[in-house]
Design goal:
With about 250 residues, this protein is an alpha/beta fold. Helix content is about 30%, strand content about 20%. Helix 2 links the parallel strand 1 (about 15-20) and strand 2 (about 40-45). Bound molecules: NADP nicotinamide-adenine-dinucleotide phosphate. NADP nicotinamide-adenine-dinucleotide phosphate binds near residues 22, 46, 84 and 89. The site of NADP nicotinamide-adenine-dinucleotide phosphate (NAP) has 24 residues, from strand 2, helix 3 and helix 4.
Length: about 250
């Protein structure tokens, strides 16, 4: 079987750098540590109070591909796992190049995309900008896209917005409602939120994973149209879709 850790390293203690910022990255760190590996997790440092994985954690950008390559070499890492969010395209691209430059093998952990429930009404769009342009005038919109990209919707003064975020953006136009809260949310939570705000349209990234699917079920149940932003295209890399699969490949 194709193993991340190759036959010569089987059974040995490895020094693994996990590019994180996701629940899967935390679960992976915890499992790898339990198996006796040395694991360092890296976070971008975007949130003030991030959920931390077990083991050593470093914060902040590396300074591009060369910084990442140097960090891995200086730290004596034997393996790199990119367990970042599917929309974190820059760091995933950097990981591919840094792995090629250093010869340190890379495995990407990438969740499966969400598939449209039978009864749902989805418009798949390539970017946030296209999502913003596609909203009809008068729409009451729930944004579940994080804080970094809400700016794409600032020009739509003819719609009403509720933005659910983990941390509030620095500024939003007058009249926007911000809900700063961390999931997961149940189907009942999501139906309640959408009903309370009279939502007609939901904008979501196709992040995938179990945790965020309830909002899509809620939208389907309430007949709310979903503008589903497709994932950015990432350069090819060896990929696993679950934590279990990564662990098996060890
Ligand atoms: P991005 O656009 O791909 O990355 C921009 C820059 O941030 C990278 O070039 C890198 O800086 C730094 N960076 C990103 N992730 C890093 C990490 N894990 N460790 C160290 N540096 C990192 O990333 P993003 O979309 O801003 O996301 C930032 C982080 O938030 C990711 O780690 C991701 O897993 C998490 N996250 C993102 C989303 C999302 O929707 N984008 C959602 C949930 C969680 P240098 O070039 O200086 O190394």
């Amino acid at each position: 079987m194709d193993s991340l850790f190759g036959p010569s390293l089987m059974g040995e203690r490895k020094r693994i750098l996990i590019l994180g910022g996701t629940g899967e990255a935390r679960a992976l760190a915890s499992n790898l540590i339990a198996l006796g590996h040395e694991v360092t997790s890296s976070l971008a440092g975007r949130t003030r109070a991030p959920q931390l994985p077990p083991g050593p954690v470093r914060m902040g950008g590396f300074g591009g591909v060369d910084g990442l390559a140097a960090y891995m070499q200086e730290g004596g890492f034997t393996h790199l796992v990119d367990a970042t969010h599917p929309f974190a395209a820059q760091i995933s691209g950097n990981a591919v190049i840094a792995s090629a430059k250093t010869g340190i093998p890379l495995l990407r952990l990438e969740r499966e995309v969400w598939l449209k429930p039978e009864s749902a009404n989805w418009l798949e769009v390539p970017t946030m900008e296209v999502a913003a342009e596609s909203l009809p005038a008068g729409a009451r919109v729930l944004l579940t896209i994080g804080r970094q990209e809400v700016g794409a919707f600032f020009g739509r003064a003819d719609c009403q917005f509720v933005a659910r975020v983990i941390e509030s953006p620095e500024t939003v136009p007058e009249g926007w409602k911000l809900i700063a809260v961390r999931g997961p949310f149940s189907l009942e939570d999501e139906i309640g939120l959408m009903r309370r705000h009279g939502i007609t349209h939901l904008v979501s990234k196709n992040s995938g994973g179990d945790a965020g699917f309830a909002k899509l079920e809620a939208a389907a149940a309430l007949g709310i149209e979903v503008l589903m932003v497709r994932r950015p295209k990432l350069p090819d890399a060896p990929t696993a879709s679950t934590v279990e699969e990564v662990l098996k490949r060890i």
